[in-house]
Backbone:
């Protein structure tokens, strides 16, 4: 069985960190470790962990505050596992997540990067990120990324440690730093996708997704379109539109020509039509009903829809 390291960057998450750790310790898979990288927390997050757990599977690494990229890089460097799963300190792994990752690794030994489905939760109610059923090697991952049917987030993917050592996170970035790393890896490696959900993304506590005061700390300020395939450009176009919402003056300076490209705007319009039709079909056929976080964590069944 492949040894898996679950890396949890931690910064002032005392109210939620225990639930995240519990979701790892309650896995049906056993060959794993939990590396918690405390990024200079100023609350009692570390005390909560030390007072709650004695498991030898847990290692706490404390460092000065350097941001999520710095914390993830440190976790990868310290990891003893061959494979890495990142998990944010307010999200949850489903009970069979690591078992499912392990089974996919055994069946796809040429793949170094596996992305699975996940639930998005608001106010303890969760829905699947996507209801589409693609499973297997993805021929054009940027196409699925652009149409929002393949989006890696911490906890929904497992990546070979050696790959992350080759493509470390940019320590300058504190927003969408995972997107930059994801695109670098997708550009150079095969991606395996599964429609089975493995984690719950808790959007109630999504402070890390807020715009920064300085665009230099946000990946949306560094988008490079030249030399990229059309579908990678389309994925970047989504981020450029996000840049316009969060940093309008910088966006116009950086991406004026991009916003005026007819091909990208037509493709984006067609995608919006596709998304609306897809949402309507899901609603009519009740393909994505809400389910509570408590039900998901009790069910012990990743395949529940």
Residues:
């Amino acid at each position: 069985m492949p040894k898996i390291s679950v890396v949890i960057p931690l910064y002032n998450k005392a109210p939620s960190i225990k639930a995240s750790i519990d979701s790892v310790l309650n896995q049906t898979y056993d060959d794993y470790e939990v590396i918690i990288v405390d990024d200079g927390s100023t609350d009692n997050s570390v005390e909560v962990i030390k007072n709650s757990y004695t498991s030898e599977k847990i290692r706490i690494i404390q460092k000065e505050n350097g941001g999520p990229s710095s914390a993830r890089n440190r976790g990868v460097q310290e990891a003893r596992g061959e494979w890495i799963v990142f998990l944010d300190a307010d999200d949850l792994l489903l009970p069979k997540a690591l078992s499912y990752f392990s089974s996919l690794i055994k069946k796809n030994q040429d793949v170094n990067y596996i992305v699975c489905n996940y639930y998005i939760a608001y106010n303890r109610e969760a829905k699947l990120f996507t209801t589409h059923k693609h499973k297997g090697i993805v021929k054009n991952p940027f196409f699925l990324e652009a149409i929002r049917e393949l989006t890696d987030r911490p906890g929904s993917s497992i990546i070979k440690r050696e790959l992350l050592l080759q493509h470390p996170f940019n320590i300058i970035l504190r927003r969408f730093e995972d997107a930059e790393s994801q695109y670098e890896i997708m550009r150079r490696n095969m991606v395996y996708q599964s429609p089975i959900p493995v984690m719950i993304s808790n959007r109630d506590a999504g402070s890390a997704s807020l715009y920064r005061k300085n665009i230099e700390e946000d990946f949306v300020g560094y988008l490079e379109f030249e030399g990229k395939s059309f579908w990678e450009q389309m994925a970047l176009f989504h981020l450029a539109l996000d840049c316009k919402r969060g940093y309008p003056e910088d966006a116009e300076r950086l991406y004026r020509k991009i916003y005026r490209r007819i091909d990208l705007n037509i493709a984006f319009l067609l995608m919006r039509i596709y998304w609306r039709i897809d949402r309507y079909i899901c609603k009519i056929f009740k393909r994505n009903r809400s389910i509570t976080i408590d039900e998901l964590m009790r069910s012990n069944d990743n395949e529940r829809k």
Summary: The longest strand covers residues 191-202. The longest helix spans residues 262-285. Residues 4 and 81 are 5 Å apart (CA to CA). The chain has a mean pLDDT of 93.
